[in-house]
Design goal:
There is one protein chain. Helix 5 packs across helix 6, helix 7 packs across helix 8 and helix 11 packs across helix 12. The radius of gyration is 22 Å and the shape is globular. It folds into two domains: 327 residues, Rossmann fold, CATH 3.40.50.12780; 97 residues, GMP Synthetase, Chain A, domain 3 (2-Layer Sandwich). It has twelve helices and 21 strands. The strands form five sheets. It has a nine-stranded mixed sheet with strand order 4-3-5-6-7-8-9-14-13, sandwiched between helices. 41% of the residues are buried. The chain is of the alpha/beta class. It binds zinc ion. Zinc ion binds next to loops. Zinc ion (ZN) binds next to loops.
């Protein structure tokens, strides 16, 4: 197992960890009361928190609350104490701004360094950071972690795939940080150029996040690039990427519990669910200053896998890989499904390439699903028709979804910089 960045904190016995969480929760509530009386008013009528369980009496905070608080209405420090901000890449309306104090930036560097160390990245490594450096938190999150570890950084940011491959090869890059769909783009351009990751690079580790990605996709990327991949979580609102990551045991994503208190709730009843049951992750920040969050509803669906110490020695609880975002659920003809379920079914077939796009439209008052699937078989042949109908049958068998499958040549679906566009819903625009 690779070295930990902060072994004392990462292996704290659970009673000590929970005592620290309670102390920090009380501190955070006091910090909110001192810094933003209006925000503290949300908790005013409630008793003082005496145990971690009592957090259930506190109200949730939602993405909408944060939107309505634009730009700094929930901030708990004056703007003169802020040193930077990131913005959430929400698709609708007012953006969510997350300001940072100098301590917040240090906290971000610390959790991100723990993540990189868990993935086996250290001082002797070279990391190529491919998420963008800008309002999106990804580029800077990896940057602060790698800076903390004194790992050599290639801060290339998003896009320029040809140059990305050139640097991977020429600069002896060992670790790749990316939004989860970006490795597919690298693989595709590599194939066009006859570039072989196994023989032409020293790449060993991939740290991917920001999107829900299936196990099937993960297996493909690992095989093609010859790397071990790690699934990193965290979002703008919680202070950025780095809230947790899976370790070499790959038995769940460790959450840095001395910084974050995690609950899993039933999104409908808003009541906590038992460990092992799926629900929405709710996060309370325990060490953030500029925008501390109490019971933030992330919309991410996961479950608690274990609160026992892991084979790696870390004691923080482990959650499952994010199954979906509750916002991503598609409802069509009375059937609820998630893009990741479609992805898993498609990717089980070897003749399906790595890109696909789900189009929803309303024709004559009826919803229709049309899925574009990239495949080397795209030409109109008997074998391509057979594949399309096999995929269509599988989707119906497993999801109850009737969809028209259209095979399209590899490279024909547009690749935007940043996150992949997997769903185009035109049902309400026509
Ligand atoms: Zn572990």
């Amino acid at each position: 197992m690779p070295a930990m960045y902060q072994p004392d904190l990462e292996t704290l016995p659970r009673p000590d960890l929970e005592a620290l969480q309670l102390e920090r929760l009380r501190h955070t509530l006091a910090h909110i009361a001192a810094g933003n009386p209006a925000y503290a008013g949300r908790f005013a009528s409630l008793p003082t928190v005496q145990s971690l369980e009592q957090i259930r009496h506190l109200p949730f905070i939602t993405k909408n609350d944060l939107r309505h608080a634009y730009p700094f209405q929930l901030a708990c420090v004056p703007q003169t104490e802020m040193v930077r901000m990131q913005m959430s890449s929400g698709t609708t309306g007012t953006p969510i701004i997350c300001p940072h104090t100098a301590n917040d930036v240090r906290q971000w560097g610390e959790i991100s360094a723990r993540c990189l160390a868990a993935a086996g990245v250290g001082r002797e490594d070279v990391i190529q950071i491919t998420p963008s450096f800008g309002l999106f938190n990804g580029g800077f999150g990896f940057h602060y972690g790698a800076s903390t570890l004194e790992t050599m950084i290639i801060p290339i940011g998003a896009g320029r795939t040809g140059l990305q491959l050139q640097f991977l090869r020429d600069l002896n890059v060992t670790a790749l940080a990316a939004v989860a769909s970006y490795p597919l783009r690298l693989i595709e351009v590599a194939a066009e150029e006859g570039f072989d990751f196994h023989t032409q690079t020293r790449l060993r580790v991939g740290i991917f996040g920001a999107e829900v990605w299936s196990d099937e996709l993960r297996r493909r990327v690992e095989m093609t690039m010859g790397i071990e991949t790690f699934d990193i979580i965290g979002m703008t609102e919680t202070g950025g990427v780095g809230m947790g990551i899976d370790c070499p045991a790959h038995s769940g994503i460790h959450v840095w519990e001395d910084h974050y208190l995690v609950e899993i709730i039933d999104p409908e009843s808003e009541q906590p669910v038992a460990d092992g049951e799926w629900g929405e992750m709710v996060v309370t920040t325990l060490t953030r200053e500029a925008l501390p969050l109490i019971r933030f509803r992330t919309r991410d669906i996961t479950r608690i896998l274990s609160r026992e110490a892991c084979a790696c020695g870390r004691t923080g609880l482990r959650v499952d890989r994010i199954a979906c975002r509750s916002d991503d659920m598609l409802k069509i003809k009375g059937i609820n499904f998630y893009p990741k379920q479609v992805e898993t079914i498609l990717m089980e077939h070897e003749q399906v390439a790595n890109d696909y796009q789900i189009h929803l439209q309303r024709v004559g008052g009826k919803d229709e699903v049309h899925i574009l699937v990239e495949s080397p078989l795209a030409a109109e042949t008997a074998s391509s028709r057979a594949l399309a109908s096999r995929l269509s049958d599988k989707l119906y068998d497993q999801l109850g979804l009737r969809a028209r499958i259209e095979l399209t040549p590899v490279g024909s679906i547009e690749r935007p910089p940043g996150k992949a566009v997997r769903v185009i819903d035109r049902r309400h625009t026509a």
